[in-house]
Amino acid sequence: MLVGVTTESAATGDAHVVVACPDVLDVRGTTGRLRRGAGDPTWRWAPDGAWHATRRGDDVATLRLRAVPGGVRADAWGPGAEAVLADAPGLLGLLDDATGFAAHLHPVVARAHRTHVGLRLARSGDVWSAVVTAVLEQRVVGVDAHASWRRLVARHGTPAPGPAPAGLRAAPPPRVWGALPVWEWRTAGVDAQRSDTVRRAAAVAHAFRADLTPAELARRLRTVPGIGPWTAAEVTSRALGDPDAVQVGDAHLPHLVGWALTGRRADDAGMLRLLAPWQGQRQRVLVLLATAHLGRMPAYGPRGRRALPLR
After folding, report:
1. Mapping DSSP to helix (H, G, I), strand (E, B) and coil, where does residue 170 land?
2. Number of other residues whose CB lies within 10 A of the CB of residue 82
3. How far is CA 5 from CA 19, 83, 196, 224, in A?
4. Is 262 helix (H, G, I), strand (E, B) or coil?
5. Cβ distance 122 to 30 under 8 Å?
6. Per-residue pLDDT tens for 102-112?
7. Sorted alphabetically, which InterPro entries does this protein's record hold (predicted)?
8. 64, 43 contact by CB (below 8 A)
9. 39-43, 44-48, 167-171, 305-309: the lowest-pLDDT one
10. pLDDT confidence of 294, banded at 50, 70, 90?
11. Do 141 and 306 touch, CB atoms closer than 8 A?
12. Helices and strands in the chain: count of H runs, count of E runs
């Protein structure tokens, strides 16, 4: 899967790998699900590739992904370069195992699967950033959560090493998040409940590792007051590429699933019943339906207030 690792000049990367990929792989669609809004300072799409600033522990790295004959070339800079390159296949969705996925059980799922055959479930490997972004997205609309993330990372993150695009930054480590003063949170639009949850999680962040199973990571996350099933599923789906994560408690997902599969609204219990035939692959169904925009209900009358996701 990985073809060659070399040390080079700063112009082309401290190190690089070429990852052999199938021609149908949708790199942007797969990795784009990890970006938290168009202005996410940890991601940048540019003509010369997709740029990502991240960290592994205290080591920061810049990663650039670009298509080359036979696959995707990943260049990396910074002290975390080798670790990030080792995670490149997971980030590209190449560790995603869809064996046994029975898309044919429903024509809508089958059609979405055919249309988006190159879409994979990415595994970011960055558990802590997934924890923070998921907590920030509790009970608020996505654009507000993304704005909070953007401001906090821009102010307290680490500039991306190497020849990264201007403004690209890696998110702060847990100790920085845990020490942010109250006014920083409030200026970024984060209420006390969410900021306190991040601080509590930061105190035990060492327990949230990428080598855990999704079930064990979810169990550990849920020992933190303020982290429930919705947040845990968000983290395992993004950080570990969990193919079965279901964000129970979301304000939108039950209606997406219900409308796409039955033409009617659904609640959490109804969503779980509808997804039961795909036990083990339920996150894959959710991603396909959302990507294909198959869960949109027709609008009747004036648009109401946006619903907020629960924890």
Report:
1. strand
2. 18
3. 10, 12, 42, 39
4. helix
5. yes
6. 999 999 999 99
7. Alkylbase_DNA_Glycosylase/TA, DNA_glycosylase
8. no
9. 305-309
10. low
11. yes
12. 14, 8
**Nearest-angstrom CA–CA distance, 252 and 14:** 43
C-alpha to C-alpha distance for 215 and 171, rounded to whole angstroms: 25
Residue 24, exposed/middle/buried by CB under 10 A (0-12, 13-18, 19+)?
exposed
pLDDT at 55 over 50: yes
Cα–Cα distance between 87 and 81 in angstroms, integer? Answer: 10
Name the token pair of 279. Answer: 């036990």
Listed in sequence order, the residues at least 6 apart from 287 whose beta carbon sits closer than 8 Å to its beta carbon are 33, 119, 121
Residue corresponding to tokens 């992904």: 65
The DSSP bridge partners found for residue 258 are none
- Encoding tokens for residue 172? 């702060």
Note the helical H segments in 60-211.
81-86, 88-91, 107-115, 127-136, 142-156, 174-179, 182-187, 192-203
Please tell me the distance from the alpha carbon of residue 129 to that of residue 150, in angstroms, as a whole number.
12
Amino acid at 123: R
For residue 244, which amino acid is it?
Answer: D
Residue with tokens 């079930």: 215
Does the structural domain 127-208 have CATH classification 1.10.340.30? yes
> Burial letters for 225-247: b for 16+ Cβ neighbours within 10 Å, e otherwise?
ebbbbbbbbbbbbbbbbbbbbbb
Distance (Å) of CA 248 to CA 37, 62, 233, 283: 22, 34, 8, 11
Residue labelled with tokens 């558990």: 127
CA distance 1 to 131: 29
- DSSP 8-class letter at 7: E
Those residues with Cβ within 8 angstroms of residue 44's Cβ, 6 or more apart along the chain or in another chain:
50, 51, 52, 164, 165, 167, 168
